C-alpha cells in the first residue's frame, strides 16, 4: 500500500468503522483524471447503474458474491451486462469533486452488508479478521 501512497494514486485509504453506523471511509479513493476510462476490478455482472444523491454510480456483483461500487462513474452499461476484469466499464464523471482539488474514483466493496477493504482483492493488504474477546 505504501507504493500506492508514494505514487499519489491512493488519495484516501479504507477506514473500517468501529460499528456499522459509525463514521469511517468504506472504500478507497484512487486518483483518476476526469473523463478517463474506469476498468472492472474483477469479473462480474453489472447489478446497478444510477445515481446516489448527485453521483453516478456503478455496482458490479462478482462471482464470489462480493459487490464493487464505483463512483462517480458514467457508463453506458445496463444491469445484467457481463464484464471481465480490465474491461472499460465507464469514465470518471467530470465536474464531481469527490476528492477536491483532484478527481478520483471511490471504490467500495461489500460482502453482504459488511464493507471490506478493496485492496485485499488486489492482494495489496491483508484482510482484517476480528476475533472475539477472551
From TrEMBL:
Superkingdom of the source species: Bacteria
Pfam families: Peptidase_M23
Domain M23ase beta-sheet core: 24-118
Protein name stated in the entry: M23 family metallopeptidase
Organism, as annotated: Sanguibacter suaedae
Amino acid at each position: 500500500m505504501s507504493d500506492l501512497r508514494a505514487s499519489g494514486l491512493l488519495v484516501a485509504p479504507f477506514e473500517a468503522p468501529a460499528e456499522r453506523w459509525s463514521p469511517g471511509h468504506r472504500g478507497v479513493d484512487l486518483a483518476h483524471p476526469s473523463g478517463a476510462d474506469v476498468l472492472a476490478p474483477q469479473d462480474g455482472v453489472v447489478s446497478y447503474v444510477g445515481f446516489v444523491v448527485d453521483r453516478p454510480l456503478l455496482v458490479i456483483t462478482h462471482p464470489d458474491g462480493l459487490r464493487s461500487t464505483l463512483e462517480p462513474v458514467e457508463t453506458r452499461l445496463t444491469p445484467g451486462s457481463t464484464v471481465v476484469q480490465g474491461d472499460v466499464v465507464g469514465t470518471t464523471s467530470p465536474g464531481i469533486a469527490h476528492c477536491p482539488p483532484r478527481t478520483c474514483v471511490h471504490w467500495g466493496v461489500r460482502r453482504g452488508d459488511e464493507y471490506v477493504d478493496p485492496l485485499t482483492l488486489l492482494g495489496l493488504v491483508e484482510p482484517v479478521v476480528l476475533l472475539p474477546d477472551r
